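Hey,
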Amino acid sequence: MIGFLRGIVNQIFQGSCFIDVHGVGYRVYISGTTRDALTEGQEALLYTYMSVREDAIQLYGFGTQDEYDLFILLISVSGIGPKVGLGILSGLSVDGIKVAIMNGELSTLTKLPGIGKKSAERLVLELKDKIGKFTTAPSAQTVANTAVPVSQTGVQGEVAEALMALGYRESEFIDILTRLDNGERDVATLLRDVLSELGKGR
């Protein structure tokens, strides 16, 4: 089993890339998040999962250990295969997915590629407790005890609650949250965009 690949990014496609490891080119299927972090001609390290079927052997790669670990949890759910798991990771950030599952946000989960109501319910039912065991994920108790900032209501309030459950202080995100909330984003989209902005500053 291949645990990770370190090599030069030869080419990047919509849902995959070629990694050149000492002259051997590996096609690795990647999420949108990982794709955005890669640069052709630059070295990259991808944590990998090998899918073996009768008709194909495929490698799935992830730019962070967190993304890999969540992928393994996702595909442990009945009806969620590697392609759907990768689609989920492309539709929302790792932290956003964790929060949606822990809070039972079916409306958020059903907006992800390949996820209907029944699949969303299975994700929550089978992973809610497991997600809480992630050292980098917010615990269920933390989510339950997180107070929404007095100044935030509606979509902003839900996003603020999720961010504080992830360990962010209000002072860290309030300006970004206010700036990005144009009244048109839903909770999942606004949370993803705020996390993206916060990530740039870390």
